[in-house]
TrEMBL record:
GO molecular function: methyltransferase activity
Protein name per UniProt: SET domain-containing protein
Keyword Phosphoprotein: no
GO cellular component: chromosome
GO biological process: methylation
SMART domains tied to this protein: SET (SM00317)
Residue ranges of every copy of the SET domain listed in the record: 7-111
Lipid biosynthesis listed as a keyword: no
Top-level taxon of origin: Bacteria
Species annotation: Candidatus Roizmanbacteria bacterium RIFCSPLOWO2_01_FULL_40_42
Localisation: Chromosome
InterPro entries reported in the protein's UniProt record: SET2_Histone-Lys_MeTrsfase, SET_dom, SET_dom_sf
Membrane-spanning parts: none
Length: 241
């Protein structure tokens, strides 16, 4: 279910990823884009369904949307995402990591667990310069995201059944308009827009770098030190050129 106005986005076919969601208006960083709704099923049922769009809710439950219903389940994976999964009151929201520009395709990390044989099956075609070639994540990041961050943010709602198996997960009565930046997410400036120039003679802190990328949506060029910051990773490492 989208929570932004229908005039803000357009669903259309992509060259090699099926359908995708593209913005028709700029969005500010932190904007809550939608709620991942669908039928609550077990992990085993999701695997047997042959529906690619299943979203993990906890260790027992998956959210399985109707593949023919135009929702945030149409947002594709990218190794340089501009959106992210955000846990909220037992639901999984999709939020904007940074300012996203008109014409950009929305994307987030699918975070497929690195089980044997999945790397080839979940091939990535995002086209980012540092594309990993797969939607599969590392066990290190998977545990940090699901076992630590999600559990902490969801609290008691993490394992609480919000709907019986086979029933539709109901929408929340109210949603936040925006959420704060969380350092668990990798943050990249837009590859479609030119970098902004920063006059600093040394790199600011990673906190300031994240804030600038989130607010402007762009990479940060530091001509006085000959560096362009493309992104800040969850582990504090910088992607530069």
């Amino acid at each position: 279910m989208f929570l932004i106005n229908s005039s803000s986005y357009k669903i259309k076919k992509t060259k090699n990823k099926g359908r995708g969601v593209f913005l028709t208006k700029d969005l500010e960083g932190g904007t809550v884009i939608g709620d991942y709704l669908g039928k609550i099923v077990s992990h085993e049922e999701e695997e047997d369904s042959n529906v690619f769009y299943g979203m993990t809710r906890n260790d027992d439950e998956m959210i399985l949307p109707d593949p023919d219903t135009a929702g945030v389940n149409y947002i594709n994976h990218s190794c340089a995402p501009n959106c992210a999964m955000y846990p909220y009151k037992g639901h999984m929201l999709i939020v904007a990591l940074r300012k996203i520009f008109t014409g950009e395709e929305l994307s987030y990390l699918y975070l497929v667990d690195p089980e044997e044989g999945l790397t080839f099956y979940y091939a990535c075609k995002c086209g980012a310069p540092w594309c990993r070639g797969s939607m599969v994540t590392s066990w290190e990041y998977s545990k940090k995201f699901w076992d630590t961050f999600i559990v902490k943010k969801q609290g008691k709602d993490y394992a609480k059944k919000l709907a019986s198996f086979g029933k539709e997960l109901p929408p929340l009565k109210a949603y936040p308009k925006k959420v704060k930046d969380e350092t668990i997410y990798d943050l990249f400036g837009s590859l479609k827009k030119s970098p902004i120039t920063v006059a600093d003679k040394k790199l600011p802190s990673k906190v300031i770098l994240r804030k600038k990328i989130r607010e402007t949506g762009r990479r940060l060029r530091f001509p006085k030190i000959g560096t362009t910051v493309i992104g800040v990773l969850y582990n504090g490492l910088l992607i530069t050129s």
